[in-house]
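Weekly sync notes, structure subgroup
Attendees: PM, AL, DS (notes)

Item 1: joint prediction request from the bench team. They want all two components modeled as one assembly rather than separately. Inputs as received:
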Amino acid sequence: MQANSGMLTKFESKSSRAKGIAFHPKRPWILVSLHSSTIQLWDYRMGTLIDRFEEHDGPVRGVDFHKTQPLFVSGGDDYKIKVWSYQTRRCLFTLNGHLDYIRTVFFHHELPWIVSASDDQTIRIWNWQNRSLLCTMTGHNHYAMCAQFHPKEDLVVSASLDQSVRVWDISGLRKKHSAPTSMTFEDQVARSNANQTDMFGNTDAVVKFVLEGHDRGVNWVAFHPTMPLIVSAGDDRLVKLWRMSETKAWEVDTCRGHFQNASGCLFHPHQDLILSAGEDKTIRVWDLNKRTAVNSFKRENDRFWVIAAHPEINLFAAGHDNGVMVFKLERERPASAVHQNTLFYITKEKHVRSFDFQKNVESPTLLSLKKLGSPWVPPRTLSYNPAERSVLVTSSADGGSYELINLPRDGSGAVEPTESKRGQGNSAVFVARNRFAVLNTASQNVDIKDLTNNTTRSFKPPHGTTDIYFGGTGNLLIITPTAVHLYDIQQKKSIAELSVTGVKYVVWSNDGLYAALLSKHNVTIITKSLEQVSTLHETIRIKSATWDDAGVLLYSTLNHVKYTLLNGDNGIVRTLDQTVYLVRVKGRNVYCLDRAAKPKVLQIDPTEYRFKLALVKRNYEEMLHIIQNSSLVGQSIISYLQKKGYPEIALQFVQDPTTRFELAIECGNLEVAVEMSKQLDRPKLWTRLSTEALAHGSHSIVEMCYKKLKHFDKLSFLYLTTGDEGKLAKMAKIAEHRGDFTSRFQNALYLGDVEDRIQMFKEIDLYPLAYATAKSHGLEEECQSILEATGLTEEQLTLPQLGAPLTPPKPVVPTYKADWPTKAASQSFFEKALLGQVEGLSLEDETSAPTNGFGLDDAGDEETGAKRTGALVDVDDDEDAAGWDLGDDIVPEVEEGFVNVESADAGGAGLSEADLWARNSPLAVDHVAGGSFDTAMQLLNRQVGAVNFAPLKPRFLEVFESSKTYLPASAGLPPLVNYVRRTLDESDPRKVLPIIPRDLEYLATNDLQRGYDFMKTNKLEDCQRVFKGILHAVLVNAVSSESEVAEAKKLITSASEYLVAVAIELARRKFTPDMISQNPSNLKRSLELSAYFTIPKIEVPHRQLALLNAMNLAMRSKNYSTALSFANRILANGANPKIMESAKKTKAQCERNPHDAVEIEFDQFAEFEICAASHTPIYSGTAYEECAFDGAKYHTKFKGTVCTVCEVCEVGKHGSGLKLFA
Amino acid sequence: MDPFSAEGELINIHNHFHQGQYQDVVDFDTSSLSSENALPARVLQLRAQIALGHAEDVLADVQGVTGPELEAVGALAEYTTGDVDSAVKTVEKLAQSSADNATVQVLGGIVLQAAGKSDEALALLSQHSGNLEAVTLIVQIHLQQNRNDLAVKEVAAARRWAQDSVLVNLAESWVGLRLGGEKYQQAFYVFEELAQAPSTSSVRSLVSQAVAELHLGRIEEAQSALEQALQKEPDFADAIANLLVLTVITGKDPKALTSSLEQVDAHHPLLTDLAEKSELFDKAATKYKPKVAAA
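Output from the run, pasted for the record:
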């Protein structure tokens, strides 16, 4: 075929010469009128011929679709204009009047008019509603070749072989036909008979301009859709551009290039381009503004006769000697690339932009590519390199070229790239951080280039390579027309090959394990080592695809978004009203680019494919979740489940009893099957049920079925096998009652009832048999009576040899008493889950309440929840944090003589980064991380008076341990040590700082909550351990802002209060009941401790527990007054009803007798704190000492001891304050 | 032509070795190699054997063989089996007699550095002429001595003449991990590229990738890479060590990992460091005492 660079043929038909073409404005249809008198209606998207209309005699030259009605018009060499309905597929009527061949026919865009041009030198306007001729425009003095309405104004333009183009004003005609009908009937008749001249002597249509310039006949003429421009094509091989104003019109320029008659021309509906077609077998594209040739497409043998544009979408059609072609001038697929949460794409204006999927925002223009390639050729592909933040853009202009450009950090409008590297190539993709591959199809060569655009290696790809794609690290996917190769760049060889034809695009899954190969009609899913996983076929063209995070491929065809699982199961997700290119799926959103290169978000319902995926992965929890949360019931999903062998799951969805029965049988769910059979009550179903039940050993169901079916013999046999003699006897009775002797005989046999058998034989006069039976069972009397009855003697009989009498078989086990299942009833996990039997699957488990160790209902759970989140903020902070802001730190001088080697060039070891940390930071933790423990201790000693370091050892080692990694380097040498930083972006050695494990945030969200939980669940030792750990972790830590320092202080205070509280309670618990009963002072102390337990400022729900505890103890010891105060406090705090109830009761009881039996040192009205060492009150106003770190209060006598709370610092030693932030 | 260059026949075995794919090196079919490349290939294979822990076999293999290359291999094997003095002696002798031999430089450098004689190692290695492996060793020694500045220079120089080599990329990444900032990401790309491509992937590159991720603060990714590495080679000490570090960073209890590291490699730097610091702590802590002993 032709070498049509850039033109994309979408459809071609073979026929006789095509003279007229019309696009349907909405549907993918095209009308083609042929020289052979036929009019064809094609679906150019599907490539099918929808209809043929054959009523014209001779060639049909003009056709047009009506914009809104299901109509089209045609005009032919039989002088006839025909109006057709494509719905009823008939010609509705014919307009006669022209006296020669009709060249073109067009509908008016709003009025019910048709304009026609004819060889009879006239142009006529018709009303197709009343089927009349409105106006005949004369003036051309040769064949009128083409006439068209102006799209907006009341103008007609015509072209004629008289070498002129004429513009006609038809506003008179419109006035006349839309004027109010105020005139009399006579007037109207007179007026319509006036024919062209109205009462002022004006004609309905007057020539406005005559455009002369062509020096041969003019074949075609067209208005510009928006601008006052006209384009014409003539036998002088020229395409001329004209401009008009209100008063005049003139020639603007001429496009020269056709070397044969130019037969058709038009303006591009959206771009500043002119298209023309000619008998020189070319279609040419011209720049409207420069009137220069932009492109031309040549066909070998076919002269072009007509060209048409789709009014909306970017499609054109041209008719030639052997049919019609529908084509595009350029690809509409916007070049794009996705990296993590960002889409990079090139707009129609050739701007590079990005789109953030998380924020749903479009960036401003990052870069303008205006200068890349020719202005009319959009870039073809975009490859993004996140490491360098650069893009590689290819364009098909100039025989294929690529450009490597760095993106600016922020978009600041249309920036021209400052520095770009370019070269020749058809495809270019990044293959590594610092390498890209360029394919040159003409020379069949692939170059691997570095970022400076130098070729580092180059190789010959497999024969016939058309495209290359990224193939996983170090690899390329090489596309040939018949196969895809996985090519190892390092080894320069193809390591795998898969024969897939016509692959056009490759889409990698997010995890890089799978890729989808898209060809026109196929999707092939491969693994990263190029093994085929599945393939599917689509009749409609596949446009794009993208993977969701779970490994489902979503792809778009021209009109659908579909999905396919890895196993090839696929289905429709939604329909599309316009073509889009998918770039990303996230939840219910599909992100795509439309043809105008605008990012769009489509809503989808992913339930179906998620469900199927869960099914394939046997992820029952997920399935359950989906079933319970979405309305997934549909025939398709049921049949899918059944087909895939999950009838038991399908059963959950079905309502229809018949289907339910089928499914139940299939999965062996007899209960449901019985239920459904009862509902339906059809013999066929009972039969099937009986068979199935028999296989299951459920003979009670079998019995029921047989009863329903009245299968008496089977029923008898069933009773026999199950040993149910009672029922068997009943069967015999029934048989007798029915008079069914065979059945009776059978039952008698089963029962071993000889008498009945003989009786029966006698009844039916079978005496010989009766006799033989009696004889063989030794019933001589019976024999005799038979002989008597028959009047025979024994001698007259010749008996055969008689065998042993029949003994009926006896079942070993009386099975009839219970079913004996032979087949396990398949109650799936799934059903159980649905029935709520599987533990831990309940969907409410997120909200499951923690158990409460104090044996109470969850004390104000909601409140606790709220407290938890804001725990650090809410804790009272009236503790005077003295000593915290006491001016600057005294950073201990670093005694070790550091050798300054920064400028020394010669050998010798340098400072490790760990050493630098100690230098860079005044924080103890950074010294610890650097391994400089002694300086760290010195710092802590000065800051908070730390003296007892042993408890801090785990924390020291933890911090130290987490600061270094071990990088395996050269074999034989120890690993290279590197230093983990918390300052990730810093590379200045004077500013780097180490990572700190268990930072403040971690402590607040993990350890603190754990401490609360232990408190709640009454595990006080664990609680103590956790809070101590928190104190130690905060002591050796670092934060990133002043506000975090405040937060850290709150955390310290909170932990300290809890530790005091827990210590008090633990001390109280040391008193066993025996000790209390033996020594009254122990009772007193115990009561005091329980009262003190309520003093520390712990979280309210926890304090409630302490209060409740104290109240109950006080009650028990008849300390009603104290108990009353606790009860009041509980009520003041407010809590869950149970505690409140108990408090109210106590209060009522105590108020009757507000006296204490045991005197204790607890003044409910005084302000006091608790000494952390002695657990006695420190009343306000008395002197006290405290721990500089955690703020715990002590009686002055404890000064100099180690704080019992943190176990590190010395009580009463004031330091410079803990430093956590430099 | 340099047999290790991109066009040379040893490129693959050489890359396998430096990507840590030792088994691939041992299994490499050397029969088709030209005669002058047979010896370097054999040296690589022997070194791979040593790296795989078969130093004794190698020692037996090269016993009594002459020729500087194999003698150097013998020294490395000796060193690995614990015979440090003899190995150092051999190397020092070789350094006298054939210091211009590339294999002697590299293996000698390794033995000397491992024995703690960094200056001698550097002196031997600096005699190389266009030997990339020597360059990477020099880089590593500089880094071990915390002379990041010198390491940077060395890499920059090598990059000028051997841009595309795996070795240069690796050395640059080592330096990058030390320097940090944006270099972390670049180092990560190099390691990831090696670790993720099936033809170049090895446990070592996976661990390296994880280390880079750790430095980048991508804890979860690092963890999955390390777990992947341990799945492939459960006894890889560096993987355990790094996972241990990661565990501590995430605030979890590393006891199980500590004991498994002790089993695999009791002399891992992490353990020796920790033991040393633990001692230091106890010593330093004794300097402080409360004024009043607890009641």
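Discussion: The first strand of chain A starts at residue 8 and ends at 14.
Action: AL to compare against the crosslinking data before next sync.
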